Amino acid sequence: MSMAAPAEKKTMTATNTFSGYITRNDLAGHCKNPHALAWIEKCIDLCKPDKLFWCNGSAAERQSLFEQGCKDGTFIKLNQQKLPGCYFHRSNSNDVARTEHLTFICTPSDDLVGPTNNWMSDKEAYARLRGLYDGCMKGRTMFIVPFVMGPIGSPLAKVGIELTDSLYVTVSMSIMTRMGDVAWKQLGDDDEFTRCLHSVGDVNPDRRYICHFPLDNTIWSFGSGYGGNALLGKKCLALRIASYLGRQQGWMAEHMLLLCATSPKGQKTYVAAAFPSACGKTNFAMLIPPGKYADQGWKITTLGDDIAWMWVDKESGRLRAINPEAGYFGVVPGTNYTSNPNAMESMKKDTIYTNVGLVTLPDGTYDVWWEGKDGEVPQRCTDWQGREWTPQIAKETGAKAAHPNSRFTAPMANNPVLDESADDPAGVPVSAIIFGGRRSKGVPLIYQAFNWMHGVYLGFTLGSETTAAATGAVGVVRRDPMAMLPFIGYNIRDYLVHWSRMRKGMKDCPRIFHVNWFRKDENGKFLWPGFGENMRVLKWIIDRCHGGAYAVETPIGWMPRPGDIDLEGLSVTREQFEKMQAVTPEEMKAEIIGQEELFLKLAGDLPKEMIFQRELLIARL
Ligand code: SAT
Ligand code: MN
What sign results for the dihedral spanned by CA atoms 90, 93, 97, 103? Predict the structure, then answer.
């Protein structure tokens, strides 16, 4: 795929500026793309909505939808002096997170989806869901939501159309994607768009299905209104469907943040990083360089906090990336002016708060609160389930005001450190890829892979300890290849081969690193201060990319010596740093044995490169 030139092959269809309710008879007048029109008609016949709402993506439309949502109970308006343009939403209490066990890849044969996905035959899935969709929008409105993933005009940008009966989903899509008329322009007369059909149904977990049909570029989601299950542009399209398309078309869709580090001399280095959930991806994407670095003139700017689409630029032979999203869907609890000031700034206006605590102010208007917010703990509030919450109740019952997975939905334009290239169709050149997990023992703070293939192995064997945020045992290492385990939309074998093959087109490939901010000492205390201080590690990574930092060869990869990472101004001694970096033969052995389960799970679906890398590692030890 060649770069820069925006796709000019498309025929422009008429610009649509209409927003609002339309009749079935009006539909053809609005929808000029014959493929989209035919598909929308079919979905209307199936779902039988009472009304149709045509979205154009304007600010006025979003405002009118918020107002409508305040009337029908979808939203509660927050105090507009404190939080202009901000609204509160409470989901059904059975519908607060992605449901991986109800998420399916639907194809004719299960070999296409491999051992890491739930498979359903496409025929069966269509039949089962058709039964659920039949008449599901009677008495409801079907919102017609066209959207683009990626900067408009980018060769990688993809169009989707979501038909949904959820006003919350419609407004959220207008924040998270480039939604509205722009999508029709990007699509032209093409048939190439993702067909996204969504209904909240009766929000019954027994009738909840998140089905992907990669061969048909189609997503059918039923029974959930939650983010990753219902905002179909995000995990469903931009990761599962896109990873499949990327393999066909020679590019990659990855669960990665994207940031730019600008040196005091103005040199820009773009970094992509994959961390499993609860490892601080959003915090790292919005990192604030600590005192000394800020004084010297270092700047970190954000391109994305969750997803990166990457391709090899033919001319330069370099890997380039865009963030397909236009907003942040971030975890709220624990976010404050210490942990992530830029996220706090991002959610000050035009933001939806979902499932946080709701505080009634003396004048009768509302504010939001969550565990870990700056300032005073309120005397009382309404919790995410609408029940009374007080510090006393919390003490007695452990009840949380905000659900641990409560979220803010904010436009990326709100981010004070949004990178100037965030909207650039040409994307940015990636110099470093970082993999990282939460590991209390045995994994160093930082090391560099010997080469691309070794880096693929580090990504493949990525592991992270479970936290209280997820169900199940805490502190168990869960393997999460490339942090993509729930998001690879096809056979992981082919996914790993695709990673290897991507190297071929590159003249100069990104350096690959592994980080662990979470190593602990024998008393259970974190060894590394983390947050902004991660800048010191990032600086070494950047210097390595530009040939400017020293490293020693060790059995597991290239490592900085204590003097190679700037520790000045930290309470970390050189001796402690050495401890953070050291891996004993016993620890290495435990790690290799710990990877065994992954290898066994994928036995028969493993590319030989991964087996060789493992053998080489053992040989080096
Ligand atoms: O709901 S999302 O998938 O968008 C967020 C998450 O669970 O990681
Ligand atoms: Mn994510």
Answer: negative
Residue 16 has pLDDT above 80, yes or no: no
Distance 286 CA to ligand 1 centre (A): 18
Is the beta carbon of 255 within 6 A of some atom in ligand 1?
A: no
Return the H-helix or E-strand segment holding 502.
helix 492-502
Q: Which ligand has the shortest distance to the CA of 327?
A: 1
Q: Tell how far the Cα of 84 is from the centroid of ligand 1, in angstroms.
A: 25
Are residues 227 and 328 in contact, defined by beta-carbon separation less than 8 angstroms?
Answer: no
Kindly report, residue by residue over 311-356, the tens digit of the pLDDT.
Answer: 999 999 999 999 999 999 999 999 999 999 999 999 999 999 999 9
CA of 355 to the centre of ligand 1 (A): 14
Q: What's the rounded Cα separation, in Å, for the pair 435 and 354? A: 29
**Crossing angle for the helix pair 452-460 and 608-620, nearest 10 degrees?**
100
CB-CB contact of 319 with 311 (8 Å)? yes
How many angstroms separate the CA atoms of 272 and 538, rounded?
A: 12
Give the pLDDT confidence score for residue 4 in this predicted structure. 42
Backbone angles phi, psi at 613, to 5 degrees: -60, -40
State which of 177, 234, 485 you would mutate to test the pocket of ligand 1, scoring each by most atoms of that ligand within 8 A of its C-beta: 234
Half-sphere exposure of 89 (CA within 13 A, CB side): 28
Burial of 570 (0-12, 13-18, 19+ CB in 10 A): middle
Contact predicate 509/252, CB 8 Å: no
Tell me if 227 CB under 6 Å of ligand 1.
Answer: yes
Q: Which ligand is nearest to the CA of 407?
A: 1
Please give the DSSP secondary-structure letter assigned to residue 158.
Answer: E
Return the half-sphere exposure (C-beta side, CA atoms, 13 A cut-off) of residue 225. 23
398-449 pLDDT, tens digit per residue, is: 999 999 999 999 999 999 999 999 999 999 999 999 999 999 999 999 999 9
Write down the number of H helices and E strands in the chain: 18, 32
Residue positions counted in the chain:
621
**Residue 164 Cβ contacting ligand 1 at under 6 Å:** no
Answer yes or no: is pLDDT of 470 > 60. Answer: yes
The CB of 240 under 6 Å from ligand 1? The reply is: no
Q: Does the Cβ of 234 fall within 6 Å of ligand 1?
A: yes
Which ligand places an atom closest to the C-alpha of 231?
1
